[in-house]
């Protein structure tokens, strides 16, 4: 009998989002928590991997074990304390499958060697656990934007650059994506980093017959924007400005306090708004690191709009959330959906998964209701493609 087990390989495996996903999966398997926030649980009649069929592994440069990371998340209010003891065996199993990731400053030799080492880890993981397929999800720290270079234009030119020991062309996120595709694994970019969003890697995905999706998981402020902005356009109300402030602590706050890294996040958050409103709009947006917030994120938005006869009005909203608790179930959803897409023979970008992302690859639709309807229709069609 063909194995139905699926691997979920997390890049940034010991970060907050990944740890929350690993803990949540363990709790779901044990029946200790309901699947709140898991979109795939509402997709009736769709054949998806069961929670018990998902095996976790990953790459990271950090060595802190999951038990310690889980204790930190419990103190931060992300995990109920009563869940920790029962899931310790599952966390230790997951720990045993985490391998060293790639970092450009410690790697020696051509990048091709790094790609092949990471790909070999994935192949070993798949063979060891008799997995039908593996889904790689990037939940590592956000990288600065990467300039477009000729080597990204085709797979042939990229391969030549990767084999040159004097050059380091790809950012770490794209090294991980390249390794995943080379190993025949589907790939998801849950961050705004460059990752798989390169013509050469699209070519590789098609050649390897594997699907990919992304990018930048939509969990808070942008989620609200994709619901609210269509209200203004559908009611023929003119939005004059849409200002946003994000306050965050934890690892994300520290990472995004670097203006270069924040640029990737700000771009993915802002691009969709213009599309939703039908054109450019004054939309200042900034991110502040507030360390004492820990894992909590706060977003405050002020929308100035014009109604009949020029009447000026405004909308303000505040979103306070624990981002990892919002993101983790989506990571589990994407593992199930991408495994099903791969099984159905889908290759290349999967635009229908734009529902999950701020900057959806392969699709310019940002309206949440349209994305939701398309996701459900697409998911229900998968069984017929197998």
From TrEMBL:
GO terms under biological process: inositol biosynthetic process; phospholipid biosynthetic process
Protein name: Myo-inositol-1-phosphate synthase
Molecular function GO terms recorded: inositol-3-phosphate synthase activity
Organism in which the protein naturally occurs: Actinokineospora fastidiosa
Domain Myo-inositol-1-phosphate synthase GAPDH-like per the UniProt entry, residue ranges: 220-324
Pfam families: Inos-1-P_synth, NAD_binding_5
Secretion signal span: none
Recorded family membership: Belongs to the myo-inositol 1-phosphate synthase family.
């Amino acid at each position: 009998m063909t194995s139905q087990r699926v691997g979920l390989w997390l890049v940034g495996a010991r970060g907050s989002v990944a740890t929350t996903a690993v803990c949540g999966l363990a709790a779901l398997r044990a029946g200790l928590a309901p699947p709140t926030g898991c979109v795939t649980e509402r997709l009736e009649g769709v054949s998806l991997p069961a929670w018990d069929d998902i095996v976790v592994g990953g790459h990271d440069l950090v060595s802190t074990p999951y038990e310690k990371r889980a204790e930190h998340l419990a103190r931060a209010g992300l995990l109920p304390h009563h869940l920790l003891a029962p899931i310790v065996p599952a966390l230790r199993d997951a720990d045993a499958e985490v391998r060293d990731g790639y970092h450009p400053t410690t790697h020696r030799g051509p990048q091709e060697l790094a790609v092949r080492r990471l790909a070999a880890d994935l192949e070993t993981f798949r063979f060891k656990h008799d997995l039908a397929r593996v889904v790689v999800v990037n939940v590592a720290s956000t990288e600065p934007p990467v300039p477009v270079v000729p080597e990204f234009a085709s797979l042939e030119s990229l391969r030549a650059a990767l084999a040159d020991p004097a050059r380091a062309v790809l950012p770490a996120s794209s090294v991980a994506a390249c390794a995943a595709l080379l190993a025949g694994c589907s790939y998801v970019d849950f961050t705004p980093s460059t990752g798989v969003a390169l013509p050469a890697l699209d070519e590789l995905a098609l050649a390897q017959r594997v699907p990919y999706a992304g990018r930048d998981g939509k969990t808070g402020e942008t989620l609200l924007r994709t619901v609210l902005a269509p209200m203004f356009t559908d009611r023929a109300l003119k939005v004059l400005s849409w200002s946003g402030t994000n306050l965050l602590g934890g690892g994300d706050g520290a990472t995004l306090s670097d203006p270069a890294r924040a640029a990737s996040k700000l771009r993915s958050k802002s691009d969709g708004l213009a599309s939703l409103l039908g054109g450019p709009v004054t939309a200042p947006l900034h991110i502040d690191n507030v360390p004492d917030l820990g894992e909590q994120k706060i977003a405050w938005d002020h929308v100035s709009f014009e109604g009949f006869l020029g009447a000026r009005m405004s909308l303000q909203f505040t979103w306070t959330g624990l981002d990892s608790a919002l993101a983790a179930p989506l990571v589990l959803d994407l593992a199930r959906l991408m495994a099903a897409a791969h099984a159905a023979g889908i290759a290349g970008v999967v635009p229908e998964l734009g529902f999950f992302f701020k900057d959806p690859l392969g699709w310019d639709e940002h309206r949440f209701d349209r994305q939701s309807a398309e996701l459900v229709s697409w998911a229900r069609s998968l069984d017929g493609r197998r």
